[in-house]
Specification:
Shape: globular
Distance between the termini: 27 Å
Order of helices and strands: HHHHEHHEEHHHHHHHHEEH
Helix content: 55-70%
Structural class: mainly alpha
Number of helices: 15
Number of strands: 5
Largest sheet: 3 strands, antiparallel
Amino acid sequence: MSKPIDIKTGNVFEPLKKNLDYKDKEFLTLNSEQVYDILAQRSNDTVALWFKLQQAWCNNAYNTFKDYDTYLILVHLVCQVFQKYSDRFQFLSYEEFYAKDELVIDKINLIEISKELNIPKETIRRKVNFLQDQNIIFRKGKAIYFSNEISRMQRPANSKKIMANFLEKTGQILTTEPWFGKAYSKEEIEEFIDKYFTICWQHWFKLQIPFLVRHRTFFGDLETWNVWGAIGISQFTDYSKQVKDKIVEDPRTYADLYLHLLRHTPKNGINASSISEISSIPRATVIRKLKNLLKQKLVSKNKKLEYMLLPSPKNIKSFEQNYMHNQKHKAAFVTTIFDLMKNSSFKVE
């Protein structure tokens, strides 16, 4: 058992309510290492669920501005607002948060954002100016605010449903362990996220922002990463079908899955038009990114102009480290949400 990830939300955990000096007090919550170990044993299933959630969220992010960097800056600023509520132990529902006409942003520090997102300061400045031009953020005196345009731009109605489904399936895997207890339906999970939206989505952003930054740093831009990811998901889907059909061995750990997927040669790859349709990235941009991936020897192309991952891509160790890093953070996120549902004072009546 372990402590909650974010001590600033610690007061919602029932055992803490009896002791104000909770910073030095051990209290029981789910353990992310145990969660990781169980999910790793069903790696093929859990990765499939994760890919569906991740791809849906990222495609929605791209569709908002047709530019990942602008959206990344936007969610960074929204996460600051979530953190401000959390620091004051205020937790707004989905409807309460998006019903607000104005949301105060404490400050916009270009250097700080640049360091956290690994985006050049001048690019940050240009994107922030764009958000002001679109009336998404505005100044009033010395204060900076989000306008109610944030409701239209960043309201994650579809992502909530897919996340609830992901957590339902994940909970069904974890409920085989006595320390986890009961699983929840997707309806119960979505109702919980709706009621305690700002804290749940704050933890989602705390997972997503560094996740996207890692990939942006590795690939140079997130559009290239999404093109590469579409190829990877296509290859995983083919591999996963062979696992279910008992044609290939079922992986028992995340490391097994990674190695099996690299060695897997699908009968068919995926073409540029399909990648464009899946990702919503224009076909001309997709083709340009594919040429770059070919040049970097990260993918291969067959005679039918279909693309596949290379069995031994350049920087294979970096790929493996990033992949394993992501699985650990995913398990920590799952642990946090179920901790809030099971071990906190947050309840859905």
